[in-house]
Specification:
The protein is mainly α. It is 68% helix and 0% strand. It is built from 21 helices and no strands.
Protein backbone atom coordinates (compact mmCIF):
# COMPACT_ATOMS: atom_id res chain seq x y z
CA UNK A 1 0.00 0.00 0.00
CA UNK A 2 2.83 2.37 0.91
CA UNK A 3 4.62 1.66 -2.37
CA UNK A 4 1.45 2.38 -4.31
CA UNK A 5 0.98 5.72 -2.53
CA UNK A 6 4.58 6.65 -3.28
CA UNK A 7 4.12 5.82 -6.96
CA UNK A 8 0.95 7.90 -7.12
CA UNK A 9 2.79 10.81 -5.53
CA UNK A 10 5.69 10.54 -7.97
CA UNK A 11 3.50 10.44 -11.08
CA UNK A 12 1.48 13.39 -9.77
CA UNK A 13 4.66 15.41 -9.34
CA UNK A 14 5.82 14.35 -12.81
CA UNK A 15 2.54 15.52 -14.33
CA UNK A 16 3.06 18.97 -12.84
CA UNK A 17 6.51 19.08 -14.44
CA UNK A 18 5.36 17.67 -17.80
CA UNK A 19 6.56 20.71 -19.74
CA UNK A 20 10.12 19.94 -18.64
CA UNK A 21 10.10 16.32 -19.83
CA UNK A 22 12.38 15.32 -22.69
CA UNK A 23 12.27 15.02 -25.59
CA UNK A 24 9.76 17.73 -26.45
CA UNK A 25 6.53 16.42 -27.92
CA UNK A 26 7.05 18.25 -31.21
CA UNK A 27 10.46 16.64 -31.72
CA UNK A 28 9.13 13.17 -30.93
CA UNK A 29 6.15 13.66 -33.25
CA UNK A 30 8.38 14.73 -36.11
CA UNK A 31 10.67 11.74 -35.65
CA UNK A 32 7.78 9.28 -35.54
CA UNK A 33 6.12 10.90 -38.56
CA UNK A 34 9.20 10.15 -40.66
CA UNK A 35 9.32 6.60 -39.30
CA UNK A 36 5.62 6.07 -40.05
CA UNK A 37 5.98 7.42 -43.59
CA UNK A 38 8.73 4.89 -44.23
CA UNK A 39 6.48 2.08 -43.02
CA UNK A 40 3.66 3.25 -45.28
CA UNK A 41 6.05 3.19 -48.23
CA UNK A 42 7.10 -0.36 -47.40
CA UNK A 43 3.47 -1.47 -47.08
CA UNK A 44 2.50 0.13 -50.39
CA UNK A 45 5.30 -1.73 -52.16
CA UNK A 46 3.84 -5.10 -51.19
CA UNK A 47 2.52 -6.84 -54.28
CA UNK A 48 4.01 -4.34 -56.71
CA UNK A 49 5.59 -5.76 -59.84
CA UNK A 50 9.36 -5.40 -60.02
CA UNK A 51 10.06 -4.24 -63.57
CA UNK A 52 13.75 -5.00 -63.13
CA UNK A 53 13.12 -8.65 -62.26
CA UNK A 54 14.29 -11.29 -64.73
CA UNK A 55 12.20 -14.18 -66.00
CA UNK A 56 14.03 -16.51 -63.64
CA UNK A 57 13.17 -14.32 -60.64
CA UNK A 58 9.51 -14.31 -61.59
CA UNK A 59 9.50 -18.09 -61.96
CA UNK A 60 11.05 -18.43 -58.51
CA UNK A 61 8.33 -16.20 -57.05
CA UNK A 62 5.64 -18.32 -58.65
CA UNK A 63 7.29 -21.49 -57.41
CA UNK A 64 7.46 -20.18 -53.85
CA UNK A 65 3.83 -19.12 -53.99
CA UNK A 66 2.87 -22.72 -54.75
CA UNK A 67 4.33 -23.96 -51.51
CA UNK A 68 2.82 -21.98 -48.68
CA UNK A 69 1.24 -18.75 -47.51
CA UNK A 70 2.83 -16.97 -44.56
CA UNK A 71 -0.05 -16.07 -42.26
CA UNK A 72 2.31 -14.28 -39.87
CA UNK A 73 3.98 -11.98 -42.40
CA UNK A 74 2.15 -8.82 -41.31
CA UNK A 75 2.66 -9.62 -37.62
CA UNK A 76 6.38 -10.17 -38.19
CA UNK A 77 6.66 -6.81 -39.94
CA UNK A 78 4.95 -5.15 -36.99
CA UNK A 79 7.28 -6.84 -34.51
CA UNK A 80 10.29 -5.59 -36.43
CA UNK A 81 8.90 -2.05 -36.38
CA UNK A 82 8.24 -2.25 -32.63
CA UNK A 83 11.75 -3.60 -32.08
CA UNK A 84 13.22 -0.59 -33.90
CA UNK A 85 11.39 1.70 -31.47
CA UNK A 86 12.20 -0.30 -28.34
CA UNK A 87 14.66 2.27 -26.99
CA UNK A 88 12.07 5.01 -27.33
CA UNK A 89 10.23 3.89 -24.19
CA UNK A 90 13.37 4.31 -22.11
CA UNK A 91 14.50 7.60 -23.62
CA UNK A 92 11.11 9.34 -23.87
CA UNK A 93 10.12 10.57 -20.43
CA UNK A 94 6.52 11.24 -21.48
CA UNK A 95 6.07 7.59 -22.41
CA UNK A 96 7.65 6.63 -19.10
CA UNK A 97 5.12 8.81 -17.30
CA UNK A 98 2.32 7.07 -19.19
CA UNK A 99 3.66 3.70 -18.06
CA UNK A 100 3.65 5.00 -14.51
CA UNK A 101 0.00 6.00 -14.68
CA UNK A 102 -0.97 2.59 -16.05
CA UNK A 103 1.06 0.79 -13.39
CA UNK A 104 -1.03 2.40 -10.63
CA UNK A 105 -4.33 2.01 -12.56
CA UNK A 106 -4.69 5.78 -12.93
CA UNK A 107 -6.78 5.85 -16.10
CA UNK A 108 -7.84 9.48 -15.73
CA UNK A 109 -4.32 10.81 -16.21
CA UNK A 110 -3.32 7.96 -18.55
CA UNK A 111 -6.09 8.93 -20.94
CA UNK A 112 -4.87 12.52 -20.97
CA UNK A 113 -1.45 11.31 -22.06
CA UNK A 114 -2.89 8.84 -24.58
CA UNK A 115 -4.72 11.71 -26.24
CA UNK A 116 -1.72 14.02 -26.07
CA UNK A 117 0.74 11.42 -27.37
CA UNK A 118 -1.58 9.86 -29.97
CA UNK A 119 0.70 10.99 -32.86
CA UNK A 120 3.36 8.70 -31.32
CA UNK A 121 1.09 5.63 -31.33
CA UNK A 122 2.15 4.87 -27.72
CA UNK A 123 0.18 1.62 -27.42
CA UNK A 124 2.49 0.07 -30.03
CA UNK A 125 5.11 -0.29 -27.29
CA UNK A 126 4.82 -3.65 -25.56
CA UNK A 127 5.21 -2.26 -22.03
CA UNK A 128 2.46 0.33 -22.48
CA UNK A 129 0.24 -2.17 -24.27
CA UNK A 130 0.60 -4.71 -21.46
CA UNK A 131 -0.26 -2.07 -18.87
CA UNK A 132 -3.37 -1.05 -20.80
CA UNK A 133 -4.49 -4.66 -21.28
CA UNK A 134 -4.02 -5.33 -17.57
CA UNK A 135 -6.26 -2.36 -16.78
CA UNK A 136 -8.90 -3.58 -19.25
CA UNK A 137 -8.78 -7.05 -17.68
CA UNK A 138 -9.39 -5.60 -14.23
CA UNK A 139 -12.20 -3.38 -15.49
CA UNK A 140 -14.19 -6.23 -17.06
CA UNK A 141 -13.40 -8.88 -14.43
CA UNK A 142 -16.64 -8.48 -12.50
CA UNK A 143 -18.82 -8.25 -15.61
CA UNK A 144 -17.11 -11.29 -17.11
CA UNK A 145 -17.77 -13.25 -13.92
CA UNK A 146 -21.47 -12.36 -14.25
CA UNK A 147 -21.50 -13.52 -17.87
CA UNK A 148 -19.79 -16.80 -17.00
CA UNK A 149 -22.13 -17.41 -14.08
CA UNK A 150 -25.14 -16.87 -16.31
CA UNK A 151 -23.82 -19.36 -18.85
CA UNK A 152 -23.07 -21.94 -16.17
CA UNK A 153 -26.56 -21.56 -14.75
CA UNK A 154 -27.83 -22.57 -18.16
CA UNK A 155 -29.84 -19.49 -19.00
CA UNK A 156 -28.40 -19.46 -22.54
CA UNK A 157 -29.15 -15.77 -22.86
CA UNK A 158 -25.57 -14.76 -23.54
CA UNK A 159 -24.77 -17.49 -26.00
CA UNK A 160 -26.47 -18.99 -29.00
CA UNK A 161 -27.88 -17.49 -32.16
CA UNK A 162 -28.93 -13.88 -32.39
CA UNK A 163 -32.49 -14.86 -33.27
CA UNK A 164 -32.94 -16.22 -29.75
CA UNK A 165 -31.38 -13.22 -28.03
CA UNK A 166 -34.48 -11.19 -27.27
CA UNK A 167 -36.50 -14.26 -26.28
CA UNK A 168 -33.99 -15.22 -23.62
CA UNK A 169 -33.61 -11.79 -22.00
CA UNK A 170 -36.41 -12.43 -19.52
CA UNK A 171 -34.59 -15.51 -18.24
CA UNK A 172 -31.38 -13.54 -18.00
CA UNK A 173 -33.00 -10.77 -16.00
CA UNK A 174 -34.69 -13.18 -13.64
CA UNK A 175 -31.32 -14.69 -12.80
CA UNK A 176 -29.77 -11.29 -11.98
CA UNK A 177 -27.35 -11.32 -14.89
CA UNK A 178 -27.35 -7.56 -15.26
CA UNK A 179 -24.12 -6.37 -16.86
CA UNK A 180 -23.00 -2.77 -16.60
CA UNK A 181 -19.77 -1.35 -17.95
CA UNK A 182 -18.11 1.97 -17.14
CA UNK A 183 -17.51 4.61 -19.77
CA UNK A 184 -13.78 4.34 -19.10
CA UNK A 185 -13.69 0.80 -20.54
CA UNK A 186 -14.70 2.05 -23.98
CA UNK A 187 -12.08 4.77 -23.77
CA UNK A 188 -9.50 2.05 -23.07
CA UNK A 189 -10.70 -0.01 -26.03
CA UNK A 190 -10.44 3.01 -28.30
CA UNK A 191 -6.89 3.61 -27.09
CA UNK A 192 -6.04 -0.05 -27.72
CA UNK A 193 -6.99 0.20 -31.38
CA UNK A 194 -5.90 -2.78 -33.51
CA UNK A 195 -3.28 -3.84 -30.95
CA UNK A 196 -5.81 -6.03 -29.17
CA UNK A 197 -4.60 -8.71 -31.60
CA UNK A 198 -1.74 -9.31 -29.19
CA UNK A 199 -4.12 -10.89 -26.67
CA UNK A 200 -6.82 -12.96 -28.45
CA UNK A 201 -8.10 -14.32 -25.13
CA UNK A 202 -8.75 -10.82 -23.82
CA UNK A 203 -10.38 -9.90 -27.13
CA UNK A 204 -12.82 -12.79 -26.80
CA UNK A 205 -13.58 -11.85 -23.21
CA UNK A 206 -14.36 -8.31 -24.31
CA UNK A 207 -16.73 -9.61 -27.00
CA UNK A 208 -18.59 -11.80 -24.50
CA UNK A 209 -18.87 -8.99 -21.98
CA UNK A 210 -20.15 -6.56 -24.61
CA UNK A 211 -22.72 -9.11 -25.73
CA UNK A 212 -23.94 -9.50 -22.17
CA UNK A 213 -23.92 -5.71 -21.80
CA UNK A 214 -26.19 -5.36 -24.83
CA UNK A 215 -28.60 -8.13 -23.85
CA UNK A 216 -28.97 -6.83 -20.31
CA UNK A 217 -30.07 -3.48 -21.74
CA UNK A 218 -32.96 -5.04 -23.66
CA UNK A 219 -36.47 -5.07 -22.17
CA UNK A 220 -37.78 -8.19 -20.48
CA UNK A 221 -40.55 -8.44 -23.06
CA UNK A 222 -37.99 -8.51 -25.86
CA UNK A 223 -39.73 -5.63 -27.63
CA UNK A 224 -36.59 -4.00 -29.03
CA UNK A 225 -38.48 -1.62 -31.31
CA UNK A 226 -40.55 -0.19 -28.48
CA UNK A 227 -37.52 0.50 -26.29
CA UNK A 228 -35.16 1.60 -29.03
CA UNK A 229 -35.73 5.21 -28.03
CA UNK A 230 -34.74 4.64 -24.42
CA UNK A 231 -31.54 6.50 -23.53
CA UNK A 232 -29.79 3.49 -21.96
CA UNK A 233 -30.29 1.20 -24.94
CA UNK A 234 -29.19 3.92 -27.34
CA UNK A 235 -26.09 4.57 -25.27
CA UNK A 236 -25.27 0.85 -25.14
CA UNK A 237 -25.60 0.52 -28.91
CA UNK A 238 -23.39 3.52 -29.59
CA UNK A 239 -20.70 2.29 -27.21
CA UNK A 240 -20.67 -1.19 -28.74
CA UNK A 241 -20.51 0.21 -32.26
CA UNK A 242 -17.57 2.38 -31.23
CA UNK A 243 -15.74 -0.59 -29.68
CA UNK A 244 -16.31 -2.69 -32.80
CA UNK A 245 -15.16 0.03 -35.17
CA UNK A 246 -12.10 1.27 -33.29
CA UNK A 247 -10.75 -1.89 -31.67
CA UNK A 248 -12.39 -5.27 -32.29
CA UNK A 249 -12.68 -5.40 -36.09
CA UNK A 250 -9.27 -3.80 -36.77
CA UNK A 251 -7.64 -6.25 -34.34
CA UNK A 252 -9.08 -9.23 -36.22
CA UNK A 253 -6.91 -8.47 -39.25
CA UNK A 254 -3.70 -9.31 -37.42
CA UNK A 255 -4.84 -12.54 -35.75
CA UNK A 256 -3.71 -15.33 -38.10
CA UNK A 257 -6.39 -17.88 -39.01
CA UNK A 258 -8.37 -17.98 -35.76
CA UNK A 259 -12.02 -18.74 -36.59
CA UNK A 260 -12.90 -18.89 -32.88
CA UNK A 261 -12.19 -15.17 -32.53
CA UNK A 262 -14.27 -14.45 -35.62
CA UNK A 263 -17.14 -16.44 -34.16
CA UNK A 264 -17.03 -14.48 -30.90
CA UNK A 265 -17.10 -11.24 -32.87
CA UNK A 266 -20.05 -12.49 -34.90
CA UNK A 267 -21.97 -13.43 -31.75
CA UNK A 268 -21.71 -9.76 -30.81
CA UNK A 269 -22.30 -8.26 -34.25
CA UNK A 270 -25.30 -10.48 -34.96
CA UNK A 271 -27.21 -8.52 -32.32
CA UNK A 272 -26.98 -5.40 -34.47
CA UNK A 273 -29.21 -4.71 -37.49
CA UNK A 274 -27.65 -5.20 -40.91
CA UNK A 275 -27.61 -1.44 -41.58
CA UNK A 276 -25.28 -0.91 -38.62
CA UNK A 277 -23.10 -3.89 -39.52
CA UNK A 278 -22.69 -2.75 -43.11
CA UNK A 279 -21.78 0.75 -41.97
CA UNK A 280 -19.12 -0.72 -39.69
CA UNK A 281 -17.76 -2.80 -42.58
CA UNK A 282 -17.53 0.32 -44.72
CA UNK A 283 -15.65 2.22 -42.00
CA UNK A 284 -13.44 -0.81 -41.43
CA UNK A 285 -11.99 -0.46 -44.92
CA UNK A 286 -10.68 3.02 -44.17
CA UNK A 287 -8.46 1.95 -41.26
CA UNK A 288 -5.45 1.35 -43.48
CA UNK A 289 -5.31 5.05 -44.34
CA UNK A 290 -3.63 5.89 -41.02
CA UNK A 291 -2.36 2.56 -39.62
CA UNK A 292 0.67 1.13 -41.47
CA UNK A 293 0.42 -2.39 -40.06
CA UNK A 294 -3.23 -2.69 -41.10
CA UNK A 295 -2.33 -1.57 -44.62
CA UNK A 296 0.48 -4.14 -44.73
CA UNK A 297 -1.86 -6.91 -43.55
CA UNK A 298 -4.37 -6.08 -46.27
CA UNK A 299 -1.76 -5.83 -48.99
CA UNK A 300 -0.32 -9.22 -48.04
CA UNK A 301 -3.78 -10.79 -47.86
CA UNK A 302 -4.67 -9.43 -51.30
CA UNK A 303 -1.42 -10.72 -52.81
CA UNK A 304 -1.78 -14.17 -51.24
CA UNK A 305 -5.41 -14.43 -52.35
CA UNK A 306 -4.51 -13.72 -55.95
CA UNK A 307 -1.73 -16.31 -55.84
CA UNK A 308 -4.11 -18.97 -54.56
CA UNK A 309 -6.85 -18.11 -57.06
CA UNK A 310 -4.40 -18.62 -59.93
CA UNK A 311 -4.02 -22.25 -58.90
CA UNK A 312 -7.49 -23.05 -57.59
CA UNK A 313 -8.88 -26.10 -59.41
CA UNK A 314 -10.74 -29.33 -58.70
CA UNK A 315 -7.50 -31.23 -58.16
CA UNK A 316 -6.27 -29.02 -55.31
CA UNK A 317 -9.60 -27.66 -54.12
CA UNK A 318 -9.45 -29.13 -50.62
CA UNK A 319 -5.98 -27.81 -49.84
CA UNK A 320 -6.24 -24.38 -51.45
CA UNK A 321 -9.86 -23.93 -50.37
CA UNK A 322 -8.76 -24.18 -46.76
CA UNK A 323 -5.94 -21.73 -47.41
CA UNK A 324 -8.48 -19.23 -48.76
CA UNK A 325 -10.56 -19.70 -45.61
CA UNK A 326 -7.52 -19.14 -43.39
CA UNK A 327 -6.81 -15.87 -45.14
CA UNK A 328 -10.46 -14.85 -44.88
CA UNK A 329 -10.58 -15.58 -41.14
CA UNK A 330 -8.23 -12.64 -40.54
CA UNK A 331 -9.00 -10.33 -43.48
CA UNK A 332 -12.52 -11.16 -44.65
CA UNK A 333 -13.11 -7.80 -46.31
CA UNK A 334 -9.91 -7.79 -48.37
CA UNK A 335 -9.95 -11.48 -49.30
CA UNK A 336 -13.63 -11.68 -50.24
CA UNK A 337 -13.55 -8.43 -52.19
CA UNK A 338 -10.56 -9.69 -54.18
CA UNK A 339 -12.36 -12.95 -54.93
CA UNK A 340 -15.56 -11.20 -56.02
CA UNK A 341 -13.55 -8.98 -58.38
CA UNK A 342 -11.95 -12.06 -59.92
CA UNK A 343 -15.31 -13.80 -60.33
CA UNK A 344 -16.73 -10.82 -62.19
CA UNK A 345 -13.89 -11.10 -64.69
CA UNK A 346 -13.56 -14.90 -64.89
CA UNK A 347 -16.79 -16.87 -64.83
CA UNK A 348 -14.97 -20.22 -64.79
CA UNK A 349 -13.87 -19.54 -61.22
CA UNK A 350 -17.41 -19.72 -59.82
CA UNK A 351 -17.56 -23.48 -59.19
CA UNK A 352 -14.20 -23.91 -57.40
CA UNK A 353 -14.73 -20.73 -55.37
CA UNK A 354 -18.18 -21.84 -54.21
CA UNK A 355 -16.71 -25.18 -53.12
CA UNK A 356 -13.93 -23.38 -51.26
CA UNK A 357 -16.40 -21.12 -49.45
CA UNK A 358 -17.82 -24.00 -47.44
CA UNK A 359 -14.95 -23.39 -45.00
CA UNK A 360 -16.01 -19.80 -44.21
CA UNK A 361 -17.56 -18.68 -40.93
CA UNK A 362 -20.81 -16.82 -40.37
CA UNK A 363 -18.98 -13.50 -40.02
CA UNK A 364 -17.33 -14.00 -43.39
CA UNK A 365 -20.64 -14.85 -45.07
CA UNK A 366 -22.06 -11.61 -43.69
CA UNK A 367 -19.09 -9.64 -45.04
CA UNK A 368 -19.54 -11.41 -48.38
CA UNK A 369 -23.16 -10.24 -48.54
CA UNK A 370 -22.00 -6.69 -47.92
CA UNK A 371 -19.35 -6.91 -50.65
CA UNK A 372 -21.81 -8.30 -53.23
CA UNK A 373 -24.46 -5.68 -52.44
CA UNK A 374 -21.84 -2.95 -52.63
CA UNK A 375 -20.69 -4.18 -56.05
CA UNK A 376 -24.27 -4.21 -57.31
CA UNK A 377 -24.88 -0.69 -56.05
CA UNK A 378 -21.61 0.73 -57.36
CA UNK A 379 -22.17 3.46 -59.91
CA UNK A 380 -20.29 3.95 -63.16
CA UNK A 381 -20.71 0.41 -64.47
CA UNK A 382 -23.21 -0.53 -67.14
CA UNK A 383 -25.55 -3.33 -66.14
CA UNK A 384 -26.64 -3.96 -69.73
CA UNK A 385 -24.63 -4.59 -72.86
CA UNK A 386 -24.58 -2.13 -75.74
CA UNK A 387 -27.65 -3.75 -77.33
CA UNK A 388 -29.69 -2.80 -74.26
CA UNK A 389 -31.16 -6.31 -73.96
CA UNK A 390 -28.59 -8.61 -72.36
CA UNK A 391 -26.98 -8.29 -68.95
CA UNK A 392 -23.35 -7.28 -68.77
CA UNK A 393 -20.84 -10.08 -68.32
CA UNK A 394 -19.81 -8.96 -64.84
CA UNK A 395 -23.42 -8.89 -63.66
CA UNK A 396 -24.15 -12.32 -65.14
CA UNK A 397 -21.09 -13.75 -63.41
CA UNK A 398 -22.01 -12.17 -60.08
CA UNK A 399 -25.61 -13.38 -60.29
CA UNK A 400 -24.52 -16.90 -61.23
CA UNK A 401 -22.01 -16.96 -58.38
CA UNK A 402 -24.56 -15.85 -55.79
CA UNK A 403 -27.13 -18.34 -57.03
CA UNK A 404 -24.68 -21.25 -56.86
CA UNK A 405 -23.46 -20.16 -53.43
CA UNK A 406 -26.93 -19.78 -51.95
CA UNK A 407 -27.98 -23.15 -53.36
CA UNK A 408 -24.94 -25.15 -52.29
CA UNK A 409 -24.12 -23.58 -48.92
CA UNK A 410 -26.70 -23.01 -46.21
CA UNK A 411 -25.93 -20.42 -43.56
CA UNK A 412 -27.88 -18.50 -40.97
CA UNK A 413 -29.59 -15.53 -42.66
CA UNK A 414 -31.77 -14.57 -39.69
CA UNK A 415 -29.96 -11.24 -39.26
CA UNK A 416 -29.11 -10.80 -42.89
CA UNK A 417 -30.37 -8.35 -45.49
CA UNK A 418 -30.28 -11.10 -48.13
CA UNK A 419 -32.92 -13.71 -47.33
Amino acid sequence: MLIRLMLEYLVAVALLKYVHLLPKDEEAFEHYSAFSAQRFDEANKIGKINLAATGKDLMEDEKQADVTVDLYAAVDMEREAVSERSTEVESNQSLGLLRGFLSVDDWYHAQILFDRLSPLDPVAHIQICDGLFSLIEKTISFAYAVVCRTIIQGSGSLIGSSSDATESVATSSSQSSFVDLPRELFQMLTSSGPYMYRDPILLQKVCRVLRGYYLSALPESGDVVRLDSRPRLKEVKLRIEEALGTCILPSLQLIPANPAVGQEIWELMSLLPYEVRYRLYGEWEKDDEHIPMVLAARQIAKLDTRRILKRLAKENLKQLGRMVAKLAHANPMTVLRTIVHQIEAYKDMITPVVDAFKYLTQLEYDVLEYVVIERLAQSGREKLKDNGLNLSDWLQSLASFWGHLYEDIKWDTSGSHVQ
